[in-house]
């Protein structure tokens, strides 16, 4: 059966901070992220008894990505958990998502891809645009079933061994 890829594109606004980064992204700042979710599968056959010819209904994909990712990430501070501003933001009721990893485009793309796959979506790849000129992409097949290995240190946090 022919495999077909379909893609749904989303945007969300969020703040983050790469503590220890040796450049401007060490500051708390925001992005309008663009998220491309690519699903793959056979659009016809025994897995599709309704025979609409969909890999997945775009509407169902939209609903799932909103529920699993966008409702949490949009207008939130995406935090690793060690940012100096985090206690103040939480104390004042700001929307915060504690992720436990550095909020690089690479880590966030892996997180989104793994989250969608573990929810049962036929996700093939996730591409996350951090700015109009910068994106990170991950293939679901490259993430082990137990989940991604995230980078948790960086910039001035890196010791002599690079860990
Ligand atoms: N490989 C990565 N590099 C950088 C990341 C990242 O997540 N992965 N993140 C940042 C900053 O958070 C920020 O996104 C700055 O990125 P940059 O592309 O440098 O942003 P600009 O606004 O300068 O983009 P231009 O389009 O070039 O003006 C840094 N690096
Ligand atoms: Zn940034």
TrEMBL record:
Q: Which keywords fit this entry according to its UniProt record?
A: Lyase, Metal-binding, Zinc
- Which cofactor is recorded for it? Zn(2+)
Instruction: Tell me which EC number(s) this protein carries.
Output: 4.1.2.50
InterPro entries this protein is in?
6-PTP_synth/QueD (IPR007115), 6-PTP_synth/QueD_sf (IPR038418)
- Per the UniProt entry, the signal peptide is none
From the record, give the transmembrane residue ranges.
none
Q: Which reaction does it catalyse?
A: 7,8-dihydroneopterin 3'-triphosphate + H2O = 6-carboxy-5,6,7,8-tetrahydropterin + triphosphate + acetaldehyde + 2 H(+)
Q: Which Gene3D superfamilies match?
A: 6-pyruvoyl tetrahydropterin synthase/QueD (3.30.479.10)
Which SUPFAM superfamilies would you find in this protein's record? Tetrahydrobiopterin biosynthesis enzymes-like
Q: Which molecular function terms from Gene Ontology are attached?
A: 6-carboxytetrahydropterin synthase activity; metal ion binding
Pathway entry: Purine metabolism; 7-cyano-7-deazaguanine biosynthesis
| Keyword Metal-binding appears in the UniProt entry | yes
Sorted alphabetically, which Pfam families does this protein's record hold?
A: PTPS (PF01242)
Q: Where is the active site?
A: 25, 75, 130
Q: Which note does the record give on the cofactor?
A: Binds 1 zinc ion per subunit.
Q: Which residues bind Zn(2+)?
A: 16, 29, 31
Family under the similarity heading: Belongs to the PTPS family. QueD subfamily.
Name this protein carries in UniProt: 6-carboxy-5,6,7,8-tetrahydropterin synthase
- Origin species, per record, is Alicyclobacillus cellulosilyticus
């Amino acid at each position: 059966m022919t495999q077909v890829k379909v893609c749904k594109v989303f945007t969300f606004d969020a703040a983050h901070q790469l503590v220890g980064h040796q450049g401007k992204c060490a500051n708390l700042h925001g992005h309008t992220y663009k998220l491309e979710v690519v699903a793959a599968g056979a659009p016809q056959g025994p897995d599709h008894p309704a025979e609409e010819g969909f890999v997945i209904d775009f509407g169902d994909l939209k609903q799932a990505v909103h529920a699993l990712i966008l409702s949490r990430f949009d207008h939130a501070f995406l935090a690793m958990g060690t940012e100096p501003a985090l206690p103040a933001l939480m104390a004042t009721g700001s929307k915060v998502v504690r992720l436990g990893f550095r909020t690089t485009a690479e880590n966030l793309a892996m997180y989104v891809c793994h989250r969608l796959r573990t929810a049962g979506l036929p996700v093939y790849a996730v591409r996350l645009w951090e700015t109009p000129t910068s994106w990170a992409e991950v293939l679901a097949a490259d993430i082990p079933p137990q989940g991604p290995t995230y980078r948790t240190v960086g910039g001035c946090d890196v010791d002599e061994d690079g860990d």
